[in-house]
Design brief:
Layout lengths: L1 H17 L18 E4 L12 H17 L3 E2 L6 E14 L10 E14 L7 E12 L4 H23 L5
Helix pairs in contact: 2-3
């Protein structure tokens, strides 16, 4: 019996270490008896600096998040919920300065202004700007990293916007 216990204890420890509980808070806190439709308008770029693919990238990611994380039907026209806005900022700023007084890091910041309306409960309306950024080495050309950075920043912006509006945390 003692010999079996010697193998049982490490085996149990291995099984317990391999198991984990994961809770992910994504999705909405909407009452689907009340809310059935959403209208998401275009988000045109109104920033001084423009990267044309950004609008489509951001809009697609926002629509994907709403589709994946809610049961709302996206419609044109009057809906229970509506979301509109514009991309108001697309800026580059130097961050870290090297020994030669040139920037070694550059920050790309994107800002989106969102107007979210709840036709059933106007207290839930949101009119707010959201910003996110990524830094990259100044030795790289923006054109080489721009698409990847815009994808990452758009993901973060969509999460922030979703949580502030549909997530209703």
């Amino acid at each position: 019996m003692k010999r079996h216990f010697k193998y049982l204890l490490p085996g149990l420890a291995l099984i317990l270490c391999a198991c984990s509980i994961s809770v992910k808070f994504n999705g909405s806190a909407l009452n689907y008896d009340i809310y059935k439709t959403i209208n998401i308008s275009e988000f045109p770029i109104r920033a001084a600096l423009v990267y044309p693919p950004l609008q489509q990238t951001f809009e697609n990611k926002l629509m994907d998040a709403v589709t994946r994380q809610t049961r709302l039907q996206e419609i044109d026209g009057k809906a229970d919920l509506s979301m509109s806005g514009e991309i108001t900022g697309y800026s580059l700023t130097p961050q870290a300065v090297g020994e030669d007084a040139y920037a070694t890091e550059t920050r790309l910041t994107i800002t989106v202004h969102v107007k979210y309306s709840d036709s059933k409960n106007p207290a839930n309306d949101v009119d707010q700007s959201f910003s996110a950024y990524r830094q990259f080495s100044s030795s790289l050309l923006l054109t080489d990293v721009q698409e990847e950075l815009c994808q990452e920043i758009s993901d973060e912006l969509v999460d922030l916007i979703f949580n502030a509006t549909l997530g209703n945390w």
